[in-house]
Amino acid sequence: MRPHALLLIATALAAPAHAETTLRVMNYNIWGAGGNEGKGIDETLAVIRAANPDIIGLQETRLEGADCTADACPPGGDSIAPALAQALGWHVYDQTQENGVLWANAVISRYPIGPASANDLGVAVDVDGQSVWIFNIHHDDEPYQPYQLLGIEYGPAPFITTGAEAVDYANQTRKAGMDLLMADMAAAEGAAAVFVTGDFNEPSHLDWTAAAVAAGTHPVVVEWPTTKRLADAGFTDAYRAAHPDPVAKPAFTWTPTGDEAATDDHHDRIDFVFARAPGLVVVDAAIVGEDGPRSDIAVTPWPSDHRAVVAELRF
Question: Is-above-0.90 flag for pTM?
Answer without folding.
Answer: yes
